[in-house]
């Protein structure tokens, strides 16, 4: 495909579709970033406290870039702050995995490794997006999420291949979070239109690489790949667990209490 | 050489003059580096009416220094009498530590921070791992090659924490991205 055709394709997508797709991307980063912030001052060791805050900062930075772009595509004057602070639960399009409670350090690392592996595949595909601004954001994001995956992946191995207690906890963490895997790779009509316009990949196409990385690391960590009988779904359509409301209450309090407040 | 009044230099600066001013702006988080050493200033343009446009690229998406750098640029130019300044955020191509100048790397080492090893493009010493190459980082204090990683993340987004097993000093490593 030539660059010229790609640009035309990107213009052919419905604006509302593109905004919706950008919200799905941005909301995953925003909610996980906000979740990880809860570790600040509570990390198991100082280095990990700092590490989790750094990862959170990257994620929130990515969300800011994506929201700013979404506001510009939409063309109604919404800023990144409007998008982050003035939407209620049903307007959020993140997957269930990112809104799960932090649990213990093993829960956080299992969740993080699952999403990091997903983000590496997703954002490498997005570097080829026909939406030039999204491709630019993806190129930047890809470097960061690749680094995050190294951090969470090494912890998964260290905990799995560590003591009996750490092995038991990280295995339990994967078991607990496995019901959220399917949702990462679901496709709907919006995905079909986005894929047809060359804006983003078909989520299903990311699965083989995700599976292969996951299997290599789980085996290195002496862990067993879990199975999920009743996978969760619907986050990307605005259906969420009750956890999301609490996250938003915390995150949006200032803007709700003092509308229009600026730093 | 035509004589140009100071007032005219202020109103219609050359691009070279703006670059010289930017050379004096320190990085807010690693103040031994200038923002030019760091490679974040991508373009400088002066319009016919004297309006200045500067393209700046963020190091990390969430780096809090980005806002501080933009403010410092405005500050320095304002001090020199330039008040019509637009700063554009340039995302592509994404910033890489390959853009840190050789002089910048030397300054980092002198300051006690190990500069990036190899290039982001992939050349350089290191051990292959499941998640990519893990670099061999020499100690900036004693030069020893016997060092170990303490944590992938440090006091700022751009650094990791290391320790020298010879002189036993901890040090920060400017991550290669
Ligand atoms: Zn040393």
TrEMBL record, chain A:
<protein>
    <submittedName>
        <fullName>Phenylacetate-CoA oxygenase subunit PaaC</fullName>
    </submittedName>
</protein>
<dbReference type="GO" id="GO:0005829">
    <property type="term" value="C:cytosol"/>
</dbReference>
<dbReference type="InterPro" id="IPR012347">
    <property type="entry name" value="Ferritin-like"/>
</dbReference>
<dbReference type="GO" id="GO:0010124">
    <property type="term" value="P:phenylacetate catabolic process"/>
</dbReference>
<dbReference type="InterPro" id="IPR007814">
    <property type="entry name" value="PaaA_PaaC"/>
</dbReference>
<dbReference type="Pfam" id="PF05138">
    <property type="entry name" value="PaaA_PaaC"/>
</dbReference>
<dbReference type="InterPro" id="IPR009078">
    <property type="entry name" value="Ferritin-like_SF"/>
</dbReference>
<dbReference type="InterPro" id="IPR011882">
    <property type="entry name" value="PaaC"/>
</dbReference>
<dbReference type="InterPro" id="IPR052703">
    <property type="entry name" value="Aromatic_CoA_ox/epox"/>
</dbReference>
From TrEMBL, chain B:
<dbReference type="InterPro" id="IPR052339">
    <property type="entry name" value="Fe-S_Maturation_MIP18"/>
</dbReference>
<dbReference type="InterPro" id="IPR034904">
    <property type="entry name" value="FSCA_dom_sf"/>
</dbReference>
<dbReference type="Pfam" id="PF23451">
    <property type="entry name" value="Zn_ribbon_PaaD"/>
</dbReference>
<feature type="domain" description="PaaD zinc beta ribbon">
    <location>
        <begin position="129"/>
        <end position="175"/>
    </location>
</feature>
<protein>
    <submittedName>
        <fullName>Phenylacetate-CoA oxygenase subunit PaaJ</fullName>
    </submittedName>
</protein>
<dbReference type="InterPro" id="IPR011883">
    <property type="entry name" value="PaaD-like"/>
</dbReference>
<dbReference type="InterPro" id="IPR002744">
    <property type="entry name" value="MIP18-like"/>
</dbReference>
<dbReference type="Pfam" id="PF01883">
    <property type="entry name" value="FeS_assembly_P"/>
</dbReference>
<feature type="domain" description="MIP18 family-like">
    <location>
        <begin position="15"/>
        <end position="79"/>
    </location>
</feature>
<dbReference type="InterPro" id="IPR056572">
    <property type="entry name" value="Zn_ribbon_PaaD"/>
</dbReference>
